[in-house]
Write a structure and sequence with these properties.
The complex is a heterodimer of chains A (459) and B (429). Chain A is α+β, with helices and mostly antiparallel strands. Chain A has helices at 2-11, 72-79, 89-97, 123-135, 141-159, 163-176, 189-194, 197-207, 223-234, 285-296, 302-310, 342-356, 364-380, 385-399, 404-414, 417-429, 445-450, 454-458, and strands at 31-34, 40-45, 52-58, 102-107, 112-118, 213-219, 258-263, 269-277, 316-324, 327-336, 434-440. In chain A, strand 9 and strand 10 form a beta hairpin. Chain B has 429 residues and is an alpha+beta fold. Chain B is built from 15 helices and 11 strands. Chain B has helices at 57-61, 64-70, 78-85, 110-122, 128-145, 149-161, 182-193, 208-216, 273-284, 290-297, 330-347, 351-363, 372-385, 391-401, 404-414, and strands at 23-28, 31-37, 43-50, 89-94, 99-106, 198-204, 246-251, 256-264, 305-310, 318-326, 421-427. In chain B, the strands form 2 sheets. Chain B has a 6-stranded mixed β-sheet, with helices on both faces. Chain B has a 5-stranded mixed β-sheet with strand order 7-11-8-10-9, with helices on both faces. The longest helix of chain B has 18 residues, at 128-145. In chain B, 46% of the residues are buried. Classes of the chains: A alpha+beta (459), B alpha+beta (429).
């Protein structure tokens, strides 16, 4: 649906959806340790999984880059598969492929994560390869130049060649300005061209070391034996590396009051009113999560119901929640044919938000249902070792402790109606709105002249 | 079908005691039940599938997709509100071969969820305003698709291969006018629900006895006979002689050229399919495949390249090697892509490549069986293709057993560059 494409631009799909899934039950056999060299290790043995998921979280992402290193976190996602002094670049893949396993890397604004899935017999091989590339990566001009070319093609396909991708990039930049979240992790072509070997080596040495890394292993493993192997493989590494300082919180960031955008999209106009909020780890985080569940992720979305179905003041409407480590955003989107004046579109949104402020959408029953939905999502993760590994890595990085992955069930259940109402009041009703208006570059004449008739005809 | 417990051979895995079986039984003369038990977490997945999909002529003539999509939208929104209250994630959609209602819920909500599913499948109070919105949305989606290079490329590929009325080409043609007569749509939906041959699938935390009990009164009685025109009707592909060796289409504001090097694919049941699986893995199926080495790793011409195949379950479909690169590099990348396929055709693969591909295809299976819903999805796929249970598992084993000589003989038959057409989308008005 067209709203989906607009939403993906607004919702900023580059790895920002929060998978705040809890491990559904306490697991007394969880191993959580920090090696003397600073490497954090979490092992969750569970025989019910047929495969082992490993993740190495490097606590560095696009938001930690400087103007000279912009794009590096993502560039390193590529470079880390480039071979080492002791292994050819194909060895990592060949090891996994021999078992039918898989591996990948993901870069967001807040972290870079290297993941694999493999049967238990292949785990120790993965550990050796992860250790090797943590310190022995072959960073030379040839590798760097080739990956720069590849990343540039990725950048083109992801940010230049679809109007919706271009819209996403422009919106981020205009709304967030100088905030580190304003540029997509892939960077810009100019950034990639400027990347040089010395800066790359320095970036690697600072951030791709034990003191900035968290190794997570979930699956049918012997916990004690696996920990012994981790100590054996990673223990001798020197205590090097640093975690970059946190970027500023999004909540409270100075954003423009109004942004206007135009792109080669079909003839619709979208008015967006967004609000920034604190991120995971904030005392209000769970109330915000439930508020977002009720407003953005339910089958009946209050904003859409009011604006589109009851008042018939927009063609489509949507509510989109976005989550970063250092802040969240909630956007209310109204889509109309391009006959409506911008001022009117925003007035309708404001009226609808005022109506939402009566909190009719928030009842004991709806809150209980929202909690059950979140808990159901958590339970679904129980089937997949990779999802549980991701939750553990996320809990540690976003909430400060792996054990938050086990506590979120209780945290969700403890949220009251008053908490959710207070969150809405604080962050939406009294929040500082950011307004975005998106226009199509080309509007058929007939729509320009007669589009205002559409709601009358369709009533 | 005789009532029986039919087991999928337990999937090899390293977790003691975990092996998935698919139990099936006759719910009634026209309905099959299927169950994949998994008691790790108190969730149930319900997947009901009816034997008509977008490939069916009847579905097209009768606007089955509109009828199926609208049924969760009653005029007051009560059905969706109850979905929220029951914490259910539900979707209703029409796939290529079946119409599906799929949901996940907590076990203690399941009884109420089943009641809601019955109501959804009997709902006739369709929201007219929502239908109108969906109609507008479909039009806008179409216009948006024409602005994206991937879509334009695949549109060109599918127009090259398939006849105008072939259902596999339809997603790439302007959508037909929607039916908005709610009475007629309700009638169509009712026909779908009563089709003989429907399947009620369960996965998760329930026993065979529970599943049997819940399936029993879930659906209304089936019709005696299905309507005519239900089964997909595939049209012959365009003749190879009619396909030009090359075609180029334009889109404004592109900074890259997109490639599809395409020919007709083998049908699923073709005896060469196992050999093809090995060949495809080597040519374009992994990060260091022939295509990836030549187009990505050697000189960074592209970020992505590989092999894909579609529409070939019942008849030959489309097989393509694809990639993209910046406009200035297009000619060189075009040549490289062709050269990779040419060398593949001329020289084939090595025993080492064959053995690694075989190991990967066999080893990979366990990764698609981590959750009961995945196993249920495999069951449904095999069911609608009309292949025996375990077909996909056995296909991987058959692929692993193909000799090097046979793989290379297949490559000599299939990967002849003369059989391919190069289709491109490039910058232009």
């Amino acid at each position: 649906m067209i709203t989906g494409r607009i939403l993906s631009a607004i919702g900023l799909l580059l790895g920002i959806l929060s998978a705040t899934l809890a491990i559904a039950q306490t697991t007394p056999n969880l191993i959580d340790e920090v090696l003397p060299n600073g490497l954090e290790v979490t092992i969750l043995p569970d025989e019910s999984h047929p495969v082992v998921a490993t993740q190495v979280w490097y606590h560095v992402g696009a938001a930690n880059e400087t103007p000279k290193t912009r794009g590096f976190a993502h560039l390193f996602e590529h470079l880390m598969f480039g071979g080492t002094a002791t292994h050819d670049k194909r060895d990592y893949w060949e090891h996994l492929r021999s078992y039918g396993g898989s591996c990948n890397g993901f870069t967001s604004w807040d972290q870079t994560v290297y993941v694999s899935e493999i049967p238990p017999a292949g785990l120790f091989g993965v550990l050796n390869l992860e250790e090797d590339r943590m310190v022995n990566l072959k960073l030379d001009q040839q590798n760097l130049d080739n990956e720069k070319r590849i990343v540039t093609e990725e950048l083109r396909v992801g940010t230049e060649n679809s109007p919706f991708d271009r819209l996403e990039v422009a919106m981020l930049k205009k709304v967030l300005g100088d905030h580190p979240y304003a540029v997509t992790p892939v960077g810009t072509k100019e950034d990639i061209v400027a990347a040089n070997l010395d800066l790359a080596r320095d970036f690697y040495k600072r951030y791709y070391r034990p003191k900035n890394a968290h190794l997570v292993i979930v699956g049918p493993v012997d916990g004690a034996a696996t920990l012994d192997e981790v100590r054996r493989v990673f223990g001798p590494l020197p205590a090097e590396g640093e975690t970059p300082p946190d970027p500023p919180s999004l909540f409270g960031w100075k954003t423009p009051e109004k942004v206007e955008l135009s792109e080669d999209i079909p003839p619709i106009e979208a008015a967006v009113v967004g609000f920034l909020m604190p991120g995971p780890g904030d005392p209000d985080a769970y109330a915000i999560k439930l508020m977002n569940q009720l407003l953005a992720w339910s089958a009946v979305k209050p904003f859409e119901e009011e604006l589109v179905r009851r008042r018939k003041k927009a063609l489509f409407a949507e509510t989109e929640a976005m989550v970063w480590r250092r802040g969240e955003g909630l956007a209310f989107i109204s889509v109309s044919l391009p006959y409506r004046r911008e001022k009117t579109a925003f007035r309708f949104i404001d009226e609808t938000l005022a109506r939402l402020g009566r909190m009719e959408w928030l009842t004991d029953k709806s809150l209980a249902a929202a909690k059950r939905t979140l808990l159901r999502s958590e339970q679904e993760a129980r089937w997949y070792a990779a999802q549980r590994a991701n939750r553990l890595g996320e809990a540690r990085w976003n909430e400060g402790d792996t054990r938050a992955a086990f506590e979120s069930t209780a945290m969700i259940e403890a949220v009251t109606r008053a908490d959710v109402a207070a969150a809405f009041e604080k962050y939406v009703a009294r929040g500082r709105p950011i307004r975005v208006y998106i226009r199509p570059k080309h509007v058929p004449l007939i729509v320009n002249l007669f589009g205002w008739l559409y709601p009358l005809v369709k009533r | 079908m005789a009532a029986a417990v039919m087991a999928l051979a337990p999937t090899p895995n390293h977790a003691a005691g975990l092996s998935y079986e698919v139990q099936t039984w006759d719910v009634d003369r026209a309905t099959t039940g299927a169950l994949v038990e998994d008691h790790r977490t108190p969730l149930i997945q319900l997947q009901i599938e009816f034997p008509v999909g977008t490939w069916s002529p009847w579905a097209r003539e009768n606007h089955a997709q509109e009828a199926w999509d609208i049924q969760i939208y009653d005029s007051k929104g009560a059905l969706r509100a109850r979905l929220d209250n029951l914490a259910v994630g539900l979707s209703a959609y029409v796939g290529q071969r079946s119409s599906v209602v799929s949901l996940t819920c907590r076990k203690d909500d399941f009884k109420d969820v089943l009641a809601l599913v019955r109501e959804i499948l009997a709902n006739r109070d369709f929201d007219r305003a929502e239908l109108s919105r969906q109609k507008k949305g479909r039009q806008l989606d179409w216009e948006a698709s024409l602005k994206t290079p991937d879509f334009v490329l695949q549109q060109a590929v599918h127009r090259l291969m398939f006849a105008r009325d072939d259902p596999r080409r339809r997603p790439y043609e302007k959508p037909e006018a929607m039916l908005t007569d709610v009475r007629k749509l309700a009638e169509v939906r009712d026909v779908i629900v009563r089709l003989p041959g429907r399947v009620i699938g369960f996965a998760g935390d329930l026993t065979r006895a529970e599943a049997g009990s819940w399936a029993r009164d879930l659906l209304p009685p089936a019709a005696d006979q299905p309507p005519p025109g239900l089964f997909p009707r595939m049209l012959p592909l365009s003749s190879r002689e009619s396909r030009p060796p090359e075609q180029t289409f334009s889109l404004p504001r592109l900074t890259q050229v997109y490639f599809a090097y395409a020919r007709e694919s083998l049908v699923l049941a073709d005896p060469d399919k196992p050999a093809q699986m090995i060949a495809d893995h080597v040519l374009g199926g992994h990060f260091y495949s022939r295509l990836s080495e030549a187009l990505r790793h050697k000189e960074g011409d592209t970020y992505a390249t590989g092999i894909s195949e579609s529409g070939s379950e019942l008849a030959p479909g489309v097989y393509q090697a694809g990639s993209y690169t910046k406009t200035a590099n297009a000619a060189a990348t075009d040549q490289k892509l062709r050269q990779v396929v040419k060398e593949f055709f001329e020289r084939g693969i090595t025993e080492k490549e064959r053995a690694t591909a075989a190991g990967y295809l066999v080893g990979r299976r366990v990764f698609g069986r981590q959750a009961p819903g995945q196993v249920l999805a495999i069951f449904f796929w095999e069911h609608w293709q009309g292949v025996p249970r375990g077909f996909l598992d056995q296909l991987a084993e058959r692929a692993a057993a193909v000799s090097l000589a046979d793989v290379n003989a297949f490559i000599r038959r299939f990967h002849d560059p003369a059989q391919f057409t190069m289709i491109k989308v490039a910058p232009g008005k």
